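Q: Could you write out the predicted structure for this multi-component system? I'm mainly interested in how the pieces pack against one another.
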Amino acid sequence: MPDERPLTQNIRPGAEPPSLQEYEQAGGYQALKKTLKELAHQQITQIVKDSNLRGRGGAGFPTAMKWSFVPMDGSSTRKYLVVNADEMEPGTFKDRLLLEGDPHQLIEGVVLASYAIQASVAYIFLRAEYTLAAARITQALAEAYAAHYLGDHIQGSPFSLECYLHVSAGRYMCGEETGLLNALEGKRANPRSKPPFPQVSGLWGKPTIVNNVETISNLPHIINRGAAWFRGLSKSKDAGTKLYGVSGKVKRPGCWELPMGTSIREILEEHAGGMRDGVRLRGLLPGGASTDFLVESHLDTPMDFDSVQKAGSRLGTGTMIVLDDQTCPVGMTLNLEHFFAQESCGWCTPCWSGLGWTERLLRAIEAGHGRMEDLDKLQAHARLLAPGHTFCALAPGAAEPLQSALKHFRNDFERHIRERRCPWSANGHDHR
Amino acid sequence: MLSTAEREEIEAELTRYEQKRAGGIEALRIVQRHRGWVSDEALREIGAFLDMTPDELDGVATFYNLVFRRPVGRHVILLCDSVSCWIMGYEGLRRALTNRLQIELGQTTSDGRFTLLPIVCLGACDHAPTLMIDGDLHRDVTPETLDAILARYE
């Protein structure tokens, strides 16, 4: 299998992204030209379906299947494509690489996805703190319009597309698909009831597809090189490459494009260089804050959607956060649940109320005021936060690190309660 | 009154959306860029421009943590308190910052130079701990490098 890294092939860390001319010289916008000249929109969807591309935002839903729910009978006057560039999952820094490093790759993907669903308007929904990405996307959009890769009758074809950058104003909820749509409409980013799904009734009630940055950035390569090539990039049955990241006390934290299905061990030990001297691995969140802890016995798990699920967690965003033995597992869980409690939008009771209680119970245990029965209460909250009780996935996401921390680090929780203190507090953690 | 520049920038944004009120968040950001924060008066002006009541627009404004409904200092420090930065030394950095500036999170220095706010994950976790000042990202920040960074913002 060739060691190809299509997503990051043009990215030079620390340098400017490729200009339009450099992107074109590297083969850029060929997929767009071929598509608009030779391929029907159904063919794009079919190629992407055959490629087995699954969404890279965390849920892993098959991209072409998502597109296939959009009504294509001409009944909709207007359809929308939205790029979810609201990367705000704690511990996640992969889309930043693509947004800052190769904005034209993203724009070409936007045109391809919009063509597949015959959307006439696309929005790139970007979090406000990604200021460098905003500047680079703004410049790339202007270049793409000037070169007729966007706008009316792209490259002389019948297809037209307007593409706008929307810079957000904060809140994790904006990354949730329907919360994002409310934010784009100028409302609070509360989730919407599903059904109807956005593919049928999304932005202003029109059919809308929301795809992640990494998902969209794969499209030019799939169209250029074909579905079989894309499947062949992977080590597992989930196709393609994946951006994997590691943060925490490892020797070389970072983000790498590797074959889908690369093992946790290889990512952690070879690419991140293993643990720093003097610290040992206790566990890790494999794909951001809203995934279950895995421990040392899971290290040989391939990082693909199904394998990580089988191991009891989720691939999520593919960027792992490492817990070491010098860091308090209760404190880490408190930090995570504080995040979710703060970012709850207040729409669903199990979320806004349950997460508040969860955070307070954890804070009490961490401060040495916990009781053994608090652990049962935390367990109960993890069940109440589970899927099916709320409109969106924020609360179920919050339950994942909580329930798995109680399982894997139960002794540490009990020790806090027994000793009425945090055994790690001598290390300077004051747990605000 | 909205200034001519504010009005023109907001009007340019409104062309991108099906409905006027969709430009509300952009409008709040534009006015904040010009004035530093969004006062009650500014909220009324923007609301009138977008055919929204002040309360409707405030419901939006108060949802988004980067819309400031209270005055802030000349420079706004956003200190990441999410998990990777917490593991890599957030607490020490927060102590150094609050000692150096003599304020707590959510406060502004008495000379009006800095406002210190917590922020969720800044998406630079391979270089934790991180903070952002006026849109500039600072990575691998330590209590030792803090003074040199702050000195760049008068």
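A: Regarding packing and overall arrangement: The beta strands of chain A are 80-85, 121-126, 162-167, 208-212, 241-247, 254-259, 281-285, 319-324.
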